[in-house]
């Protein structure tokens, strides 16, 4: 089945899904990458409070399915197509950051930031459509 051309809304939705999937992945051990080799054994109980559950319960997140992770990885590769100026803005918006917060961080006006965002998404869309057309032409 041949895929139709990508729209801007589809690209935005896919970037948003990728950001959501990335956020739902579990953090490494204690929020930091492990150094060297890790262990599959549970941590050692060092005092009675730890042994009897006096510390707050930790929430465990559900790991997204493998298909969602694969889609996220494919989508993250798209970010290589946009400039260094567009990248943080496109990713921040895809992650759900508000325009107001972006203005505070970036220091530029909302219309300027929105123009940069739109340009970044349009660049991704153009490259995706170029790949789609190329794939259709090579199958003939």
First and last CA, distance: 13 Å
Query: What structural class results from the helix and strand content?
Result: mainly alpha
Shape, per Cα inertia axes:
flat
Secondary structure tally, helices: 6
Average pLDDT confidence is 84
Q: Please give the share of residues in helix.
A: 55-70%
Low-confidence stretches: none
Quaternary state of the chains: single chain
Run of helices and strands = HHHHHH
The beta-strand count equals: 0
How much of the sequence lies in strands comes to: under 5%
User: What is the alpha-carbon Rg in Å?
Assistant: 21 Å
Number of domains: 1
Main sheet record: none
Could you outline the blueprint of secondary structure elements for this entry?
Blueprint: H1 8-24, H2 48-51, H3 66-78, H4 86-94, H5 99-106, H6 110-139
Structure in words:
This protein is mainly α and 140 residues long. The longest helix has 30 residues, at 110-139. The two termini are 13 Å apart. Helix 1 (8-24) crosses helix 3 (66-78) and helix 4 (86-94) crosses helix 6 (110-139). It is built from six helices and no strands. The radius of gyration is 21 Å and the shape is flat. The mean pLDDT is 84. It is 58% helix and 0% strand. It has one domain.
């Amino acid at each position: 089945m041949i895929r139709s051309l990508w729209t801007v809304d589809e690209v935005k939705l896919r970037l948003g899904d990728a950001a959501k999937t990335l956020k739902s992945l579990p953090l490494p051990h204690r929020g930091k990458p492990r150094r060297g080799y890790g262990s599959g054994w549970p941590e050692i109980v060092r005092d009675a409070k730890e042994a009897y559950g006096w510390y707050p319960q930790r929430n465990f997140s559900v790991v997204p399915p493998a298909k969602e992770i694969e889609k996220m990885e494919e989508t993250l590769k798209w970010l290589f197509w946009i400039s260094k100026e567009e990248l943080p803005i496109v990713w921040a918006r895809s992650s759900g950051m508000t325009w107001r917060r972006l203005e505070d961080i970036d220091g530029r006006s909302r219309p300027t930031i929105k123009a940069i965002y739109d340009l970044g998404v349009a660049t991704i869309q153009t490259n995706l459509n170029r790949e789609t057309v190329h794939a259709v032409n090579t199958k003939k």
